[in-house]
């Protein structure tokens, strides 16, 4: 299926390189591409999600870290507003459009609920999968038997 195609394409790209950074080359892009496609996020916007997903789970301590995290979260929310507005105008076959369609059929989500649900899907599906892939490969390398 589509996920296998994405995984194969990422591995094909790695084969062309002389080295592998598992997180950068595979663990991070695989789930973000899959989730982005499910949600209908354009490919050119996907790279921003690493910064934004880290901002959602960050624990900033210094005033500078707090300001930077707030800036990133504000950018994320602005992007989600833009995405939802575009999907309202031109719905596609994706999850964000389906959530908006459900809203139009009487299952009203507030804007905040809609943005929160999209944010949850991106962050929960992304961060956990990156860690799962990376730790699984590490465990296999440390325990080849």
TrEMBL record:
Keywords: Heme, Iron, Metal-binding, Monooxygenase, Oxidoreductase. InterPro entries: Cyt_P450, Cyt_P450_B, Cyt_P450_sf. It comes from the Bacteria. One of its GO terms (molecular function) is monooxygenase activity. Belongs to the cytochrome P450 family. This is Cytochrome P450. It comes from Bacillus wiedmannii.
